[in-house]
Amino acid sequence: MHTRLMGHLTKYIILSSEQYSFRKNLTTDNATYTLTNEILTTMNNKSQAGSIFCTVEKAFDCVDHNILLLKMEFYGIIGKKKHCIHNILQIDINKFS
């Protein structure tokens, strides 16, 4: 499922180029390098750099599954793939605690 989903997202260039982690050749190490490079370039150009960092830990727990499924459909994830993900989202995770 992961391979097919990532293949679709990559083929149709759905994810932002700034989306790191969980992607081949785009690790958090790459994100750190990119951020450091941007800051150093800005400083070398005698400009100021600022940033805001936020954690998105547990962010998926707040996602409305109906909206997620609608967005997936918008991006062409339909049919069996969408149905499979819909079924996964319906699982009551409390059963496994």
Report on the structure:
The chain has 97 residues and is mostly helical. The chain contains 4 helices and no strands. The chain has helices at residues 2-11, 28-44, 65-74, 79-90. Helix 3 (65-74) packs antiparallel against helix 4 (79-90). The longest helix has 17 residues, at 28-44. It is elongated. The protein starts with a helix and ends in a 7-residue tail after the last helix. The mean pLDDT is 86.
Report, as a whole number of angstroms, the end-to-end distance. Answer: 24 Å
Multimerization status: single chain
Count, helices: 4
Number of E strands: 0
Keywords:
97 residues; mainly alpha; 51% helix; 0% strand
Summarize this entry quickly:
It contains 4 helices and no strands. By secondary structure, the chain is mainly α. Helix 3 runs antiparallel to helix 4 (79-90).
Question: Which helices and strands appear, and what pairs or packs with what?
Answer:
Blueprint: H1 2-11, H2 28-44, H3 65-74, H4 79-90
Helix pairs in contact: 3-4
